[in-house]
Amino acid sequence: NNILLINGPNLNLLGTRQPEIYGKYTLIDLIKILKKQAKKNDINLLDFQSNSEHLLIEKIHTAKEKLIRYIIFNPAAFTHSSIALRDALLAIDIPFIEVHISNIYARDNFRSHSWFSDISQGVISGFGIDGYLWALKTIINRITNNKK
Ligand code: DQA
Questions:
Q1: Where are the beta strands (DSSP E) in 1-148?
Q2: What is the pTM of this model?
Q3: Alpha-carbon distance 23 to 57, whole Å?
Q4: Confidence of residue 148 (pLDDT cuts 50, 70, 90)
Q5: Nearest-CA residue for atom 8 of ligand 1
Q6: What is the spatial distance between Cα 92 and Cα 9, in angstroms, rounded to a whole number?
Q7: Is 124 a pocket residue for ligand 1 (Cβ < 6 Å)?
Q8: Which atom of ligand 1 is nearest to the CA of 125?
Q9: Could you say which of 68, 88, 105, 110 would form a disulfide bridge with 60 (CB–CB 3.0 to 4.6 Å)?
Q10: What are the tens digits of pLDDT across the range 77-109?
Q11: Ligand 1 atom nearest to 107, measured from its CA
Q12: Which of 106, 115, 133 is nearest to 124 (CA)?
């Protein structure tokens, strides 16, 4: 039961990057919390962060051969710009949940459009890093009930 957490550009700076918006937890804290929760439920959580669109696309391409059942994806700024990442996800046909730490609908207008929402299983936005935990919970439920 492998699932993949993917974080896009600038999320390596979590904890110090605009903490009033993105909170005080670092990416390492977040990964630790998620891995622990996944392990308790017999799920192996792999994680990847990159600032490069190219590397994110390649990681998505390899998800199938790594037998990834589900993806938790925060595309960060690529949410609003990357048709290439959207196409990569369409190409692999692995369900994913879109997560945003901040409420993208309560910020700059250009953040209100996502190239991912309509092809995702669902979107969680505005609940801080808890959003990743809710996504994980849904995935655990679905895998446990053997649903897609
Ligand atoms: C983000 C929201 C995006 O608009 C922004 O570019 C990010 C992070 C979030 O998690 O709230 O880098 O995806």
A1: 2-7, 44-49, 68-74, 96-100, 122-125
A2: 0.96
A3: 27
A4: low
A5: 76
A6: 21
A7: no
A8: 11
A9: 88
A10: 999 999 999 999 999 999 999 999 999 999 999
A11: 4
A12: 133
